[in-house]
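User: I'm curious whether this sequence folds into something compact or stays loose and floppy. Could you predict its structure so I can see for myself?
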Amino acid sequence: MFTAALSLLIATSALAGEMNEPAPDFTLKSNQGKNLRLEDYRGQVVMLNFWASWCGPCRQEMPLIDDIYSKYKDLGFTVLAVNVDEDSTDANRFLEAVPVSYPVLYDNDSKVSERYNVEAMPTTVMIDRDGNARFLHHGYLPGYEDDYVTQIKQLVRE
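Assistant: Here's the prediction. I'll summarize afterward.
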């Protein structure tokens, strides 16, 4: 679980923040039909992106994240998109309109999003190769993708 310091950072950060805390491990079913575990991505930089089908900013952000994924995946970077809809059918309908090439995970009971104290859609957590949550973003506004790229470049070089 997140430490008190990380919980405080999440509670007090406006839109984005830096941290260095262990990212809580989890396993969720993916749109590829298999269970994926965060721990299995240790050694890679992971963008953990919490989203919902009803989220307008998610619709804007997801194709941009897909472009970033395509550009940096060969450098040890991956995206895990965690959908928080209660019904995966809603997420799948969204993905028909906004397809992505990275894995989508289903957190139908919101247990994982609760462990990450997700309070806004989308919420993005950048995780370093050692499994530490390093950057946190609440919401999405045009230009955030530039911050993501800067952070990814920093983390893949570490």
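Summary: The longest strand covers residues 16-22. The chain has a mean pLDDT of 90.
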